[in-house]
Task: structure prediction
Amino acid sequence: MVESEHWRCGGQAGFWDVDERYALLSEAGDPLVKLNEVVPWEVLRKPLAKALKRSDGAKGGRPPFDPVMMFKILVLQALYDLSDDQAEFVINDRLSFLRFLGLSLGDKVPDAKTIWLFREHLVQARAINNLFARFDKHLSKSGYLAKGGQIVDATLVAAPRQRNSDGEKEAIKSGKTAKEIWPDEPAKAAQKDADARWTVKFSKAKPDVDGTVRQRDIAVPSFGYKNHAAIDRHCGFIRGWNVTSASAHDGAQLRNVLNPDNTGSKVWADTAYRSKKNEAWLERNGYESDIHHRKPKGRPMSEATSRANGRRSKVHAFVEHVFARQKSQMGLFIRTIGIERARVKIGMANIVYNLTRYVWHQGRTAPA
Result:
């Protein structure tokens, strides 16, 4: 009896059976194959090892798995919007995930607790910025220099809504931590996010059925955090980013996300970033502002300004595509508690966006 027949009759899978399955997955266009082939995962080993060393005192010790492999699990979570429990299940369930991680059918798979612990090490070591910077350095060495100017924007990242009393809300707004607000209820405090905030996002209403467009805005309350980011216009990689609560003003983060290494001086952003303070700061630091102009109060916008804003919008749209991919395809959502964990979650989404864009660029330049 041949090996494949033995498997169909209830025996164990043989080497050639699994190899054939992998070949079929590759022929079907498994996207993780290209990601594994193109991304130089080893460049991240040093910052990962440093982060684990710094967090040795954490409860539970180091996860007993290769740090690069564990990081790749976080990549899978970001790509497919997986919780820790879902990640454990799907890695055990999918051959494509096992192959991506370099595991065989007989290897032990990290459980949900181990995945959580590894990510917690990164939180405690505040390692996400170093990981982002390390891959950005690889991009520059590979010829993807930051140039062409910078496009800046921010997007809301939702988190589970909190149910608190008026007094608890006031305590949170005053800056008190969850432990300070619920000192006698440690279990409750551990589940309360005192860093996330509410904000109201305004959007234009859609035309009525008859095609009539009424001048009205829709106010949509949102709870969570913001991902502030700047991409370079030339290659479209995220080059600078920061995380704040949802209530933070976008314009105040301009200087925190701009990349000083960009060879282009122009900066594109929407009207939230236009202020005398920002314009003066940009000029002092050698930047050229191409930020949208606001409509004058009580007066129509001039035709020249309207045309200029239209030109700016065509450029600004590129950064909106970044956020759209993170939300629609990657399902970016904050399940964790606190801004430091949210920073790792959002930072991973930014890193993974750059990883996938790197694969795309490499595919365009590869010889036929």
